[in-house]
Design brief:
disordered N terminus; about 15% helix; single chain; 9 helices; 6-stranded antiparallel β-sheet; alpha+beta; about 30% strand; about 625 residues
Length: about 625
Amino acid sequence: MSTLDGTVAAPTSASAGLPLATQQDGSYPRPQMLREHWADLDGTWSFRNQGDDSAWRSGFPDARDITVPFPPESVASGIDEPGFHPVVWYSRTLTRADLDAAGLGDAAPRLVLHFGAVDHRARVWIDGQFIGEHEGGHTPFAFDVTDALGTDPDAEHTLVVRAEDDPHDLTQPRGKQDWHEDPHTIWYRRTTGIWQTVWLEAVPSASIAYLRWTNVDHATLRLTVRFAGVRTGGERLRVEARWDEHDEHLATIESTVGDTATEFDVLVPLTRQANGQAEDELHWSPEHPRLVDATVALLSRDGEPIDTVASYFGVRTVGIDGGAFLLNGRSHDVRSVLNQGYWPDSHLAAPSREALRREVELIKELGFNAARNHQKIEDPRFLYWADRLGLLVWGEAPGAYEFSPRAVQRLMREWMDAVERDASHPSIVTWVPANESWGVQHIATDPAQQAYARSLADVTRAIDPTRPVISNDGWEHPDSDIITVHDYEGDGTRLAATYADDAARTELFHGMGPADRRVLVGGAEDLGQPVMLTEFGGVNYQPGSKREDAWGYTSATDGDDWITRITALYDAIRASSFLAGSCYTQLTDTMQETNGLLNADRTPKVPIEQIRRAVTGH
């Protein structure tokens, strides 16, 4: 199918001018598929939070300014109205400067409009012409808008977006967005409408629409390419892989694409002087987050580039064996923190692109090697920094709160889109399609809900067989590759007894577990899977101003007491003979949840060295 040219070669015309994907500044909204030009449409838009489907035709006479991509409930948006927003409208002028910035020209005659995420259902118009719609508040979508823009190169155009987000519809995957007007217990204020980047990109008439890198083994990757547009037949696909860290050319692959193929696979072997020992130098891990740059080009029958994108991948494998979590074939202790991905002034939207990088840096500085992105499909640029800086990530679905055919269809569709979007990131090492029986409240006894959770796990494995899947994080597992437990016992001695040894493990699995929930349900058995304590801690401590609605699972009196409590909990975990990993609740204070290691503004509650010592034991 493919041939390998192992010679070192200068960049071809297909790759000239493209940036190294691993050295970008984190601004590109789709970090594993870069083109040379794109236009950022974030910034000031017109906004209305009422009106019927024709109201926008009057030109938004009573509109206000909103700063996209911040939700209207947030301070950062300029609207700052935290109440219910079941329907909101946005409008923006597309100018010639926008089109030029996107790279529109003779070589790229088609223009694609991208949305990172719009919660929950979006409908889009240009100059009154309906372009399309999308449902799913956490996944990207795009439309080819070339025909709607007409032929006048200097004309300005009106882009309109309607977002519908019913706060009381419990079938919508919503994560931790509250259905009450004011946040209560563990739920937060809502994020309505546009909350990730809106952008334009010009592409050729035949283009590369999607890339996916899959680790086949320790030295081979499979690249899946999806094409869009009209092809004449006989095209070729050229893939160049280069390890910039050592200025080393690794592989050049060229394959003929079938005349009617819209999706194509190619194997990319990464041989290094036939020295098997040298393979380890390429492997990605939190300690050594090595990334390989790649250029993928669609070539004409004559070898001329039709479309070229820059990408990157990480060479690593994950798995489970003998009760251990394996990274690159070796046992790896997962030391994780629960990350809500929520900011006080911008909610689920990051306050800046730099904030996404800083979040990864802070997690590592605190002594963690992993993050469980809780009830949120995170911005891809967070995943880019996790890839580049070295952080394991648990990819998790935002849950719906109802079990019904509509809820099942909605979550299944959005989750499959999320897995497909993020499957190429080496940082993601496991998938979590459900959490704490949210949306399957009677899974312990209801065969239909058990079947749903198993099907979510199985469809995840079908889309991506390379990562472990957790069917219902925390308890009541019908089918999980890793058994996870949520236990907020605040006394370190009692926590240590629960997870001490094999006898404790047997008791945990065959009796009633923490929170009076069984660990295994629906005929599931202990098959020797790894066991992880994926929520614990949650110790409330407020070093500054005191919230009357402050909430945590236990409380500390001062900073010394807080660190003593956290250290005792981690000592209990370190003493366990069978725990393969853990996840502390949580990274930051989030609204009324004052159980973070950091304040809501990301400042540490005590010197960061003290927190790190408690987490790592040294």
